[in-house]
Structure formats: C-alpha cells, structure tokens
C-alpha cells in the first residue's frame, strides 16, 4: 500500500508549506463574514496561517488575507484575529 498523502497548505504570512493540521484556517463565509475556523470544516473560502503572531503580522503587512479573499479587510477583523491567536498561543 502507498503512503497516505498529507494535505499541504501555504501560510499566507510566511509562505511556508505545512500540513493542514498544523495550521489555523481563516474563512470568509458566503455572507462575507471573516472568522477563524478551529474545526476546519466550516463552509466558506479558506486561507491558512501558522499559529504564531509573527505570521499574522506578516499576513497583515503583506495583505495576504485581502489577496486570498479578494476584498479589503477592516482593522477590527485583524484585531479579533490577533486576540484569537493570543488565546491559541497560550
């Protein structure tokens, strides 16, 4: 039997390819809402980011989420993501 393929995703912050399980999924729902998806199963367009504040900072600076979702993202959403990231870091 062949090895099972592990799904790889690229971080929108650092650009590194890692397994899907190691990363956090940020989604844009069909209603246009942006939120973190801890389960990885929610409906919507997904972008992946490493679970570190550094990658989130890089993604904000390089407008990685804006490119992924093809829309401008208000700063309050970035603040909410930063808060959620801090909860995960601990």
Q: What kind of sheet is the major sheet?
A: 3 strands, antiparallel
Q: Please report which band the strand proportion falls in: under 5%, 5-15%, 15-25%, 25-35%, 35-45% or over 45%.
A: 15-25%
Q: Please, how many helices?
A: 3
> From the helix content, strand content and strand pairing, which structural class follows?
alpha+beta
Give the averaged pLDDT, no decimals. Answer: 87
Write down how many β-strands occur, each being a DSSP E stretch of 2 or more residues.
5
Which percent bin holds the helix content? 25-40%
Compute the gyration radius: what is it? 13 Å
Shape: globular
Q: Strands of the largest sheet, in order across it?
A: 4-3-5
Distance between the termini: 39 Å
Q: Which sequence of SSEs, written as H and E, runs from N to C?
A: EEEEEHHH
Spans of 5+ residues with little confidence (pLDDT < 50)? Answer: none
What does this protein structure show overall?
With 90 residues, the protein is α+β, with helices and mostly antiparallel strands. It has 3 helices and 5 strands. It has helices at 53-61, 64-69, 75-89, and strands spanning 8-10, 17-19, 24-28, 34-37, 45-49. The protein has a 3-stranded antiparallel sheet with strand order 4-3-5. The mean pLDDT is 87.
């Amino acid at each position: 039997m062949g090895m099972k393929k592990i799904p790889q995703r690229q971080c929108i912050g650092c650009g590194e390819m890692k397994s899907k399980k190691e990363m956090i999924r940020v989604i844009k729902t069909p209603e246009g809402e942006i939120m973190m998806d801890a389960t990885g199963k929610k409906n919507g367009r997904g972008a992946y980011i490493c679970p570190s504040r550094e990658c989130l900072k890089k993604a904000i600076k390089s407008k990685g989420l804006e490119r992924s979702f093809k829309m401008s993202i208000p700063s309050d959403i970035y603040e909410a993501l930063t808060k959620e990231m801090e909860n995960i870091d601990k």
